Amino acid sequence: MLSTAVRPFPRHIILRSIVIRSVSTDTATPSKNPKAPPPPHPSKHPSISKSRILDPKPRPAISHKHPALPTLPANFGRNQLLPVSNSTRALLESIVAQFDAPIRYAFAYGSGVFEQDGYNPTTAHNGEAPMLDFMFAVTHPDHWHSINMHQNPSHYALHARLLGSSFVSRVEDISPGVWFNAFVPMKGVTIKYGVTTVDNLCSDLLNWRTLYLAGRMHKPLRIIKDDARVRLTQQVNLTSAVRAALLTLPAEFSEVELFERLAGISYAGDPRMLLPAENRAKVGNIVRKQTPQFKELYHRLVTGLPGVHWPAHMSNIQQDISPLARSAHLRKLPSNLLTSITNHYTAHSSLRRELDESAYWVKLAEDERLANVITAEMTRIVRYPATVQTVKGVVSAGIGKSVRYAGQKVGKWWQGSSHSDKAPP
Fold it and tell me: Which pathway does it serve (predicted)?
């Protein structure tokens, strides 16, 4: 009975079940624990482990800096690289190298670097050598002054040292955005150096917001530390100065007349020119001794403008003064000056902006008063920041150094005036 009750399954049924199981089951690695539950489905929002919360890994840094300016062509702005004697170059570079705080752009200027008529290049007032003037453009002024104040505390007045670098940077930030340290002995000479930011410098070079820095850079200077961004904006500044000067000059003029217009832009509204603190013949003194440097700085820029003829071997310049040619210069003046000019005409004439922009600029360009308007508006731009900086000089230098600096300026004024009186007519 029992043997007949237990019968083996037919062979074809066993084979069919094996085939069905092999087809319907995915291949998987056998688990060591057969009773373990299946793995959960991956979540779209994975939970953060407690160890990650308690000890988080640093996130990758994201740079918010603007991309660096590409390297300029080798010959771009070569007119800005004015030569000086080897001894002067070595002295200027060694002075700038003394500063531990990072300087992005630096130049030297003034009678201590390039000779001026009426001043002895080796001795100045009371037998002292002329003070060397520097301008430093930095990225972070508060940080820069903190480092420099730690390295060179004697460069700063006592109250500036007591109030700290944050006070210095706040005073610097007041228009025109420069802090000066004067009468600083270094490398056997006396120097004065100004500190500004690269952003402030480039803004003035492009827009003529104050003309305090841009006007200084219309004259010959010696670059000690170069920066691609500043070199580019300085080339724009020089071209803008040429356009403004051409709009105030006749059809034919001499290169000396051009250079005096260019050098005089920054002095037009300077309050010191109204006092015995600057030689009133200073512009002529600069140009007479620095004509070769002016020509190197501006010749290629002038001849690159349409309608201007200036052979390299000649000192006379000719330009197209038709309204169309003048309007091309007028439209490309720096934004702050151009706004001042258009506001003047809006307030004092019937000229108004029209739908045809070209016609509006041609009408302005043919106006006989344009040269005087341009000169007056440049004077107005210079006056306020130059006055503020004169007052800031007392704050930065202190009473003692300010009196000494004013005395030196008066001495130079007297020396220059005496020289001009003795000069033949």
Answer: Phospholipid metabolism; CDP-diacylglycerol biosynthesis; CDP-diacylglycerol from sn-glycerol 3-phosphate: step 3/3; Lipid metabolism
Classify residue 131: in a domain, yes or no. yes
pLDDT digits (tens, 9 = 90+) for 262-276: 999 999 888 877 665
> Which ranges in 265-356 belong to alpha helices (H)?
282-303, 323-331, 335-348
* Alpha-carbon gap, residue 229 to 112, rounded angstroms: 27
Report the C-alpha gap between 165 and 140 in whole angstroms: 11
66-80, 143-157, 400-414, range with greatest mean pLDDT: 143-157
pTM of the predicted model over 0.90 = no
pLDDT higher than threshold 60 for residue 354: yes
Would you say 171 and 396 are in contact if contact means Cβ atoms under 8 Å apart? yes
| Inside any domain, residue 401 | yes
Give the domain range for residue 217: 78-323+373-416
CA–CA separation, 245 vs 261, rounded Å?
Answer: 6
CB 110 within 8 A of CB 138: no
Residue 219 contacts residue 109 (beta carbons within 8 Å): yes
Q: 86 lies in a domain?
A: yes
For 392, residues 6+ apart whose C-beta sits below 8 A from its C-beta are: 171, 174, 178, 179, 180
**How confident is residue 119, by pLDDT bands cut at 50, 70 and 90?**
low
Total number of domains in the chain: 1
Token pair belonging to 373: 């308007």
Instruction: State the pLDDT at residue 393.
Output: 85
